[in-house]
């Protein structure tokens, strides 16, 4: 299995977010961090989650997103008038803590582990989009586009706490390999639409 490259590491704090006619608290806005950060049982040092019912906790401590999907979102924003220019989206734009290269949802399985030099993260679940994702992406069909495309990324539990930094490489250690993130996401979205 190829190594996974950590291209960027991002954290955020809860801030007001305008979503349609509502104003809600959200920590989806993540900004890049230089240097190593401690990954602990509840996430990265300095990172917050505003709605602990759906984000955060030991099983959703860290959110990873394949950077390969950014071209898709750049085009989606252009197609829906959410962007006037073909702009490069910064790491963290989708709300992820870790921007990665080398692992997509169909090859990532629940229970697989990412072994970084000083910490280990276990894949636990796909990310499920909500109305806040639409607000950040700038068009009302963004969550639907995530569902249809399967470009969801995945949550991670911290099984070996320690520092982690952009530029590091992780080795994928496979788990039971029963359910891929892609399959878990499709099944979850099918249940939600019933």
TrEMBL record:
Domain MOSC residues, every copy: 31-173
UniProt-listed PANTHER family: PROTEIN YIIM
Coiled-coil zones: none
GO terms for MF: catalytic activity; molybdenum ion binding; pyridoxal phosphate binding
Protein name per Swiss-Prot or TrEMBL: Sulfurase
Source species of the chain: Rhodoferax koreensis
InterPro entries in the cross-refs: Benzoxazolinone_Detox_Enz, MoCF_Sase_C, Pyrv_Knase-like_insert_dom_sf
Pfam families tied to this protein: MOSC
């Amino acid at each position: 299995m190829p190594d996974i490259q950590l291209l960027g590491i991002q954290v955020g704090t809860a801030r007001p977010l305008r979503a349609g006619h509502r104003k809600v608290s959200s920590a989806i806005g993540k900004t890049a961090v230089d240097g190593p950060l401690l990954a602990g049982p509840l996430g990265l040092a300095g990172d917050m989650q505003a709605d602990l019912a759906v984000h955060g906790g030991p099983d959703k401590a860290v959110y990873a997103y394949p950077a390969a999907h950014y071209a898709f979102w750049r085009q989606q924003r252009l197609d829906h008038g959410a962007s006037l220019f073909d702009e490069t989206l910064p790491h963290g734009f989708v709300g992820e803590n870790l921007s990665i290269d080398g692992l997509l949802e169909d090859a990532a399985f629940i229970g697989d582990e990412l072994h970084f030099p000083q910490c280990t993260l276990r894949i636990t679940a796909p990310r499920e989009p909500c109305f806040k994702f639409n607000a950040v992406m700038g068009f009302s069909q963004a969550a639907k586009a995530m569902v249809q495309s399967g470009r969801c990324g995945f949550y991670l539990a911290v099984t070996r706490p320690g520092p982690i930094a952009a530029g590091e490489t992780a080795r994928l250690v496979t788990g039971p390999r029963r359910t891929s993130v892609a399959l878990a996401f499709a099944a979850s979205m099918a249940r939600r639409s019933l």
